[in-house]
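sorry to bug you again but im stuck and you know this stuff better than me. below you get a single protein, a line of residues and a line of whole numbers that encode the local backbone shape. mainly i need to know what kind of three dimensional shape the backbone takes. anything you notice is useful, everything is just below:

***
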Amino acid sequence: MLMPTEWRPEHKLFPHQVGFTCPPFDYDAAPSDFLRMAPETVGVHGWMLHVPDYAHGLDQRKANFGMMDDFVHCMARNGVDVAGQVGSNWVHASGLGVNGIRDHCAALSDKHGVRFHMAGYAMVEALRALNVEKVALNAAYHWPEWWQGTAGFLKEAGFDVLWAGNFHDQGWFETQEAVNDCRWVFEGDLALKSFEYVAEQAPDADAYLINGMCNFRSGPGGLPQRPLHLTRTLEAALGKPVVGHDTALYWRIFKDLGIGPVTSQGQLLESLHV
């Protein structure tokens, strides 16, 4: 070995090095979103999973669950401090259950010496940190078997899911096929409209959630934006915390790094500064 086998602090390009992975067939925004709100001490890399015949089936996610081990090993070999998995329904697709996912993340972290978090379980941790008990789920573009699995995972974790449904269930699209045709990019005004609908169905919820990694054309020139960018506006309108799986994952990574965002964010991420 011509190079040192371990990364010492003086070898690193950034004091805080983060790695993300995302499902196959997905150009994910997480590395860009995280880096743009992080301090200059943070560096980010992404590693897209590759399965040639991937079609976003839950059975495929379960069959390829072992790729998480490959990802964390890859990140460890390249000097990453914290690794995050994007894709909210991998946790329930795995069949491991809530405690099984917790133990799996801990085992991979210990095995490779890199702290590893999955978006689906980060949501559970985030809601517990906010002392939330009752939630309602804006299931966005997720197909029924996807969001039903997410709702089941949250219930297993001890949360009272008062209501859950996707954009078709909410009446914004006539069919699920019409939702699918948008992939996961929707008109900008649908963010607030859909959350207002969910809040009407579950006014007693302690927090409103959005699963997956939905995008709304609410940015400059219609640029797609994740719920991360809209959280403050949504929370002001609803008067309750709004938590997406993207936000929960970023919160968990920041928490491990012992730092917080340098831009103004919603309640969950702002709690890192308290």
